[in-house]
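Sorry to interrupt, but I need a hand with the structure work. Could you write out one complete protein record for me, on any chain you like? Just paste the record in under my message, thanks.

. . .
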Amino acid sequence: MVISVASGKGGTGKTLVATSLALSLQDQENVQLLDCDVEEPNDHIFVHTAIGQSQPVLIPVPKVDETKCTYCGKCAEVCAYNAIAVLKQKVLIFAELCHGCGACSYLCPESAIAEEGKAIGVVETGNSGNVELIQGRLAIGELMAPPIIREVKKHIDPTSEVIIDVPPGTSCPVVEAVSDTDFCLLVTEPTPFGLNDLSLAVEVVRKLQIPCGVVINRVGVGDEGVESYCHEEGIPVLLKIPLDRRIATLYSKGIPLVEGMPEWREVFSKLFRDIKEMSVAGQVAK
């Protein structure tokens, strides 16, 4: 089963939930933890994984042979991302804007455009017990996370239980990470900001037709708005985590919740069983 753990905003406890789930399952299952928060992956801090392998992620960017080019401007015309500008006797390539779609090289009437690989980040892997960690890391100054997320997801082993730590928000990297997962666990907090961003995240997963449930973190602050919204929308609240200084202290020290407070191990194991049972029964909200 592939479970994505997402949040409409940063700082809700998404990584806390993703790593706790993975570590709680490792005694019974082979587990893969995919850290797709590629701008700043930090799951490795909590699962104590030493990175063993690193593989570059390349995207194709255009390279113009100006001995063939007639400066017709067709390449700039078809580029949806404004990564090419054609002047009177010069073609300018803005590699940082290129999405590697290949339209310019395919449609160049003079076959003057080839593609060369540009490294935008890496995929790193390592193991800790029965947990295999696969994380993407976007290179500093690069803008496009989705190609790295796609490469991370290529490592999914269908025989393992897979937990995906999704980037925060509702933008393209989130869509890439959540797509084709069996279930999306949305982590939020009981505040007006949490509710606003949760509603946006729910809209995204519903568009993707991914069943979802909610974890409410830091219960004890805010109001009942999140629970009321979930009740009205028919979205199951699967777990509530209280506002607890001990949890915050463990997190600040890089100590997994299920290790620092072992009683939570069974809580997260039950959360996984509940998700699996609901998925089998077809009772989860879409």
User: Anything to note?
Assistant: DSSP finds eleven helices and eleven strands in the chain. Residues 263-281 form the longest helix (19 residues). The CA atoms of residues 157 and 259 lie 26 Å apart.
